[in-house]
């Protein structure tokens, strides 16, 4: 059984899988389109061992909440990137109750 770890890095969003004893099985990093600050907020593994990482990615438009886009990445159990779903986020996309 492998243990999955995630680390937060200012410019990259790495995901990695480790075997018992801490030996890395694979490591991947996501660097968004504008090469800014990307961070993971959640990680999950399905029954097949596929890894899902979700978080936010700086879009380069501003330095406040409008600057965040949201994404989810899927990796195979071997660490091969399978897909990336990207949502343009920020305050301009949020619903208003007003």
Number of strands: 7
Radius of gyration: 15 Å
Task: Look at the helices and sheets and give the structural class.
Answer: mainly beta
Helix content: under 10%
The averaged pLDDT comes out at 74
Helix count, DSSP H or I runs of 4 or more residues: 0
The separation of the N and C termini measures: 50 Å
Biggest beta sheet summary: 4 strands, antiparallel
Q: SSE string, helix = H, strand = E?
A: EEEEEEE
Number of domains: 1
Low-confidence stretches: 1-13, 92-98
Strand order of the largest sheet: 4-5-6-7
* Percent range for β-strand residues: over 45%
Overall shape: elongated
Would you kindly provide a brief summary of this structure?
With 98 residues, this protein is an all-beta fold. It is built from no helices and 7 strands.
Topology (SSEs and partners):
Elements: E1 3-6, E2 13-18, E3 24-30, E4 38-45, E5 51-58, E6 68-75, E7 81-87
Antiparallel strand pairs: 1-2, 2-3, 4-5, 5-6, 6-7
List keywords for this structure.
disordered C terminus; mainly beta; 3-stranded antiparallel beta sheet; elongated; 0% helix
Report on this structure:
With 98 residues, this protein is mainly β. The protein has one domain (3-93). The chain is built from no helices and 7 strands. It has strands spanning 3-6, 13-18, 24-30, 38-45, 51-58, 68-75, 81-87. A 4-stranded antiparallel sheet has the order 4-5-6-7, with no helix packed on it. Strands 1-2-3 form a 3-stranded antiparallel sheet, with no helix packed on it. The radius of gyration is 15 Å and the shape is elongated. Residues 1-13 and 92-98 have low confidence and may be disordered.
């Amino acid at each position: 059984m492998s243990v999955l770890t995630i680390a937060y890095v200012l410019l990259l969003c790495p995901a990695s899988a480790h075997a018992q004893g801490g030996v890395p099985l694979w490591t991947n990093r996501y660097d968004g389109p504008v090469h800014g600050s990307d961070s993971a907020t959640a990680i999950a593994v399905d029954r097949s061992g596929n890894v899902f990482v979700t978080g936010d990615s700086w879009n380069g438009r501003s330095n406040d909440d409008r600057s965040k886009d949201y994404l989810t990445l899927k990796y195979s159990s071997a660490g091969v990137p399978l897909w990336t779903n990207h949502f343009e986020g920020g305050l301009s996309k949020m619903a208003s109750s007003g």
